[in-house]
Write a structure and sequence with these properties.
The complex is a heterotrimer of chains A (about 240), B (about 280) and C (about 220).
Chain A (H helix, E strand, L loop, with lengths): L1 E10 L2 E11 L4 E5 L6 H8 L7 E6 L2 E2 L7 H6 L1 E4 L11 H11 L5 H14 L15 H13 L5 E5 L7 H16 L3 E5 L3 H7 L2 E6 L2 E6 L1 H6 L4 H11 L2
Parallel strand pairs in A: 3-8, 3-9, 6-7, 7-8
Antiparallel strand pairs in A: 1-2, 1-4, 4-5, 9-10
Helix pairs in contact in A: 3-4, 3-5, 4-5, 5-6
Chain B lengths: L1 H23 L21 H8 L2 E5 L2 E2 L3 E3 L6 E2 L1 H14 L5 E5 L5 H6 L5 E2 L7 H4 L2 E3 L4 E3 L1 E6 L15 E5 L3 H9 L4 E5 L2 H9 L5 E5 H10 L3 E4 L6 E3 L2 E3 L3 H17 L1 H10 L6
Parallel strand pairs in B: 1-5, 1-6, 10-11, 10-12
Antiparallel strand pairs in B: 2-3, 3-4, 6-15, 7-15, 8-14, 9-12, 9-13
Chain C lengths: L3 H6 L1 H34 L3 H15 L3 H11 L9 H26 L3 H9 L4 H31 L11 H12 L2 H31 L3
Helix pairs in contact in C: 2-3, 2-5, 2-7, 2-8, 3-5, 4-5, 5-7, 6-7, 7-9, 8-9
The chains are: A alpha/beta (about 240), B alpha/beta (about 280), C mainly alpha (about 220).
Chain lengths: ~240, ~280, ~220
C-alpha cells in the first residue's frame, strides 16, 4: 500500500533520508522508532507530501506521490494525519474542525458530516465536547479530536507523528487507548513514537531509524528482546533503562 | 430639509465641544481680519517697519508664467509682478535687491498678509469689492480680463459656445470661478490648486476649456503652442497690489511709485518685456 | 469659536463633499481589501512568477507618493486613451496605493498563523485556496484587525488627495469654501469635524470588532 524504493532526501547539504526501502501493507501497524533527528518524522511526512523527496520512488496505492500528474489533494483524502501539536483549528468548534474536510473535500452535506463527526467523537470518548472550542479542551482531549478529524475522512491509512510527545504524562494513556482500539479494528497505521510500550504491544512491525537510514526492521518481540544491530541495542538500553 | 437642519445642529454641537475642550488648554484663536490696522508695536507704521528692517517682503506667485515663475535654471523668481515689486523696493529702500520674495497662492495670500508674513501681495490679484473689505488695494497696475484657453481646433470659440456639460477648468479661490459660473451657468466647473495642475488637466483631456485671466493664458500658450486663447475677454479684472488694511503710508508710497513708473516709461518697458506687447492705453 | 455662518451658508458644499468622500472611502476600502488580500496571497505562494509580481507591486507602490499614483491615473492614463474623471481616478489611485499596505499587513498576519495549521488542512485534502479561505485567513484576520483598521483610517484621511484632481471630495469643497470666504481657519475646522465624523466611528468599530474576535483565542 505504501512503498518506498531507494528514497533519498536532502535539505541543502543535510542528507535527511538515505536509501529508504520500506513497504507497508494494508491492515498493518508499523511503528517507527529511533533517536531524535534520525529522520523518522520526515519519512512519515513524505508519505502525504508535506515533504518532497529528492530521488527514488514513493508510491501510495500505486500512485507516485511526487509525480506532477498525481492529484495530491485527492491522494491526501485517503491519508489521515495526526500531529504532535494536534493542529486543531482554534477558530472553529470541535465539531466544525471535524466536518470541514468532509464537507469541502468530499462534498458531504452539513448534516451527513455532522453525523459522521459525532460518530467518531463518540468513538474517541468526547462526544460531549462537540460544541466547545479547542482551547477549552485538555491536551489529551484535543489529540483525540484530531484523531476523530482524521478518521472522519474515512482514510485508508492513518499517519501519527509523535502523537503523545506534547502531552502531560497523565494524558498519554487516553490517546494510546484510542490508537490501540483503532489498530485492533484493522486500520492501516504508520506511527512515529517514543512510546516503546505501545510499539511492543500494538505494532506488527517495528522500524528502527538512525541518521537517516533504516537500521533494522523486525517484529516487535524480536526487536525488543533481541535486536540484531548494535545501534538499536544502544538505543533500547537508553530508552528502556530509565 | 429637517434632516439637514438637524445635521447642522449636530455638527455645531461637535465643534463647540471641541472648542470648549480646547479652551481648557488656554489656547485662544485669533483669526480676526480687516477690522484692525494697529500693529503690536504701537505707532510704528508698516512703512517705518520696512524701512528700519531694510527689506521689503513681497508675496508673489511662483507658478504663474509671465507674472511670477520660479526659473529652474537659476532658481530666481521672474515675471511682471516680480519686476514691479523690485521697482517698489528700489523706490522705498533705494535698492531693488533689498527685497525678499515669498511664495503665495490664491488661497494663502490673504492669510499670509494678515499674519504679517508679507508686507504686500503682488500676485495677479484682482481688485474686487469683496476683497476690499479684507485688504487695501493700490491703483490698478495691470488690466487683465478673463478669457478662455482651448486646444487648437476646439469647437469652442468663445464664451457662448460653453454649453451644458462643457467641462471648464479653473483655479480654486480665484474670481474666475465665480465669473464663469455667472456667464455660463450650465458649465461643469472643475477647480485645481494652481495653474499648472489646471493646465495639466486640460492637456490630459480632463476638461474642454481652461479659464482665467488672459495674461496667464498667454503664458500657457507661450509654453505650449498647441493651445490658443479664444474669444474676447469677458470680464474686466484689474490687478491691484494688496496691502494690509489701514497702512495708508505704505499704500501712498506704492501709488506714488506706480505713477512715477508710468511717467518715466519704466512701466511700459516691464510690460512689454513680459506680455509681449505695449499696454493698451 | 469658529464662524458658524460659513457652515450654514455653504452647507450644500460641505455635504456634497462629505458624501463623495464617503463613497470614495467605501469603494477604496472594499477594493483595497480585496486587492490587498490577493497580493498578500501572491507574496506567500510558492508559485515563483506570482510571488515576484506581488513583491514588485508592494515595493513599487509602497515607495511612491500617493499623489503621484493619483496623477498617474488622472493625467497619464488619458495619453493611453483612457480618460477617467477626478473622482474615479482618485478612488482607483487610493485603492491601488492602500492595497500595497494592506497586502503587507495581511501577509504578516498570515505568516503569524502557525505552519501546523496549513499542514493539517492540506493533509486532510483541502486545496491551497480552501486552506487559505477556511483555515488561514480567518485566523490571520483576527491578528490583523488592529493594524488593518489603522490602514482604513489612513485611507479615509488620504482620500483628501482627490481634492487636487477635482475629485469633488470634502477637501475639494473645503478649498472652494475657503476660496470664497477667505476664512481659511474657520472653513477647515468644519472640514476637520466632517472627517472626524467618519474616522472616529471607524476606530470605535475596530475596537469592538477586535474585542469580539478576541473572545475565542
Amino acid at each position: 500500500m505504501i512503498l518506498f524504493q531507494q528514497v533519498e532526501k536532502h535539505y541543502g547539504d543535510f542528507h535527511v533520508l538515505k536509501a529508504i526501502n520500506l513497504q507497508v501493507e494494508q491492515g498493518e501497524v508499523v511503528v517507527v522508532v529511533g533517536p531524535s533527528g534520525s529522520g523518522k518524522s520526515t519519512l512519515l511526512r513524505c508519505i502525504n507530501r508535506l515533504e518532497t523527496i529528492s530521488s527514488g520512488d514513493l508510491t501510495v496505492n500505486s500512485q507516485k506521490v511526487n509525480d506532477k500528474k498525481t492529484n495530491i489533494n485527492k491522494l491526501r483524502r485517503d491519508i489521515g494525519m495526526v500531529f504532535q501539536h494536534f493542529n486543531l483549528y482554534p477558530h472553529k468548534k470541535v465539531i466544525d474542525n471535524i466536518t470541514l474536510a468532509p464537507m469541502k473535500v468530499l462534498g458531504q452535506t452539513k448534516q451527513e458530516a455532522e453525523k459522521t463527526a459525532m460518530y467518531y467523537l463518540d468513538k474517541v470518548g468526547i462526544a460531549d465536547k462537540a460544541g466547545q472550542y479547542p482551547s477549552q479542551l485538555s491536551g489529551g482531549q484535543q489529540q483525540r479530536v484530531a484523531i476523530a478529524r482524521g478518521l472522519a475522512m474515512k482514510p485508508q491509512v492513518m499517519l501519527f507523528d509523535e502523537p503523545t510527545s506534547a502531552l502531560d504524562p497523565e494524558m498519554v494513556g487516553e490517546v494510546l487507548d484510542v490508537m490501540k482500539a483503532l489498530a485492533n479494528e484493522g486500520m492501516t497505521m504508520v506511527v512515529v513514537t517514543h512510546e516503546m510500550g505501545f510499539a511492543r504491544e500494538v505494532a506488527d512491525r517495528v522500524v528502527f531509524m538512525d541518521k537517516g537510514q533504516i537500521i533494522e526492521e523486525a517484529a516487535p518481540v524480536e526487536f525488543f528482546s533481541n535486536p540484531r544491530e548494535e545501534r538499536a541495542r544502544l538505543f533500547l538500553n537508553r530508552v528502556l533503562n530509565h | 430639509m429637517m434632516a439637514k437642519k438637524w445635521l447642522a445642529v449636530a455638527l455645531m454641537t461637535m465643534v463647540m465641544s471641541v472648542f470648549v475642550l480646547a479652551g481648557c488648554g488656554g489656547g485662544k484663536v485669533d483669526n480676526s481680519s480687516g477690522s484692525t490696522g494697529e500693529n503690536p508695536g504701537a505707532d510704528a507704521s508698516l512703512l517705518d517697519t520696512i524701512k528700519s528692517r531694510g527689506k521689503l517682503i513681497v508675496g508673489v506667485k511662483y507658478d504663474t508664467k509671465l507674472f511670477g515663475l520660479k526659473n529652474p535654471a537659476n532658481n530666481e523668481v521672474e515675471g511682471f509682478d516680480v519686476d514691479i515689486a523690485k521697482a517698489l523696493a528700489k523706490s522705498i529702500l533705494g535698492d531693488e535687491t533689498k527685497i525678499e520674495l515669498k511664495e503665495v497662492t490664491s488661497k494663502t495670500r490673504i492669510p499670509m498678509l494678515d499674519n504679517n508674513e508679507i508686507d504686500m501681495i503682488v500676485a495677479t490679484m484682482t481688485v474686487t469689492e469683496e476683497r476690499k473689505e479684507q485688504v487695501d488695494f493700490s491703483e490698478v497696475y495691470f488690466k487683465a480680463g478673463q478669457s478662455l484657453l482651448v486646444k487648437k481646433g476646439s469647437a469652442i470659440k468663445g464664451i457662448d459656445d460653453i454649453a451644458k456639460g462643457t467641462k471648464v477648468l479653473a483655479v480654486k479661490g480665484s474670481t474666475s470661478v465665480d465669473n464663469i459660473i455667472e456667464k455660463a451657468p450650465d458649465a461643469t466647473v472643475l477647480e485645481f490648486d494652481n495653474y499648472q495642475d489646471a493646465f495639466g488637466a486640460l492637456k490630459a483631456g480632463q476638461g474642454d476649456v481652461l479659464t482665467t485671466d488672459n495674461a496667464i493664458l498667454y503664458g500657457m500658450v507661450a509654453q505650449d503652442p498647441g493651445y490658443e486663447v479664444v474669444g474676447e475677454p469677458f470680464t474686466d479684472e484689474p490687478y491691484g497690489i494688496a496691502i494690509k488694511k489701514g497702512e495708508t503710508e505704505l499704500a501712498d508710497a506704492v501709488n506714488n511709485e506706480l505713477a512715477a513708473m508710468k511717467e518715466s516709461g519704466e512701466y511700459n518697458t516691464i510690460y512689454e518685456r513680459w506680455i509681449g506687447e505695449a499696454p493698451s492705453e | 469659536m469658529p464662524d458658524f455662518s460659513i457652515l450654514i451658508e455653504y452647507f450644500d458644499f460641505y455635504i456634497e463633499g462629505f458624501v463623495n468622500t464617503i463613497y470614495a472611502s467605501i469603494l477604496a476600502l472594499l477594493g483595497s481589501f480585496l486587492l490587498g488580500t490577493v497580493i498578500a496571497v501572491f507574496r506567500i505562494t510558492t508559485v515563483k512568477p506570482l510571488r515576484w509580481l506581488g513583491t514588485v507591486y508592494v515595493e513599487f507602490i509602497r515607495n511612491i507618493p500617493l499623489l503621484l499614483i493619483v496623477y498617474l491615473f488622472y493625467l497619464v492614463l488619458p495619453m493611453l486613451g483612457i480618460t477617467l474623471n477626478g473622482f474615479i481616478s482618485g478612488t482607483i489611485g487610493l485603492t491601488v496605493y492602500t492595497a500595497a499596505f494592506i497586502a503587507e499587513t495581511i501577509r504578516a498576519g498570515i505568516m503569524s498563523v502557525p505552519k501546523g495549521q496549513s499542514e493539517a488542512a492540506l493533509s486532510s485534502g483541502l486545496t491551497y485556496v480552501q486552506t487559505m479561505r477556511y483555515v488561514i485567513l480567518p485566523q490571520a484576520i483576527k491578528i490583523v484587525i488592529p493594524p488593518l483598521s489603522n490602514q482604513f483610517i489612513n485611507l479615509v484621511k488620504n482620500s483628501s488627495v482627490l481634492s487636487v484632481i477635482a475629485g469633488l471630495d470634502l477637501m475639494y469643497f473645503g478649498d472652494r469654501v475657503a476660496g470664497k470666504t477667505y476664512a481659511t481657519f474657520d472653513t477647515y475646522i468644519f472640514v476637520a469635524v466632517f472627517y472626524l465624523v467618519l474616522t472616529l466611528p471607524l476606530s470605535y468599530a475596530a475596537l469592538i470588532l477586535e474585542r469580539r474576535l478576541a473572545k475565542h483565542s
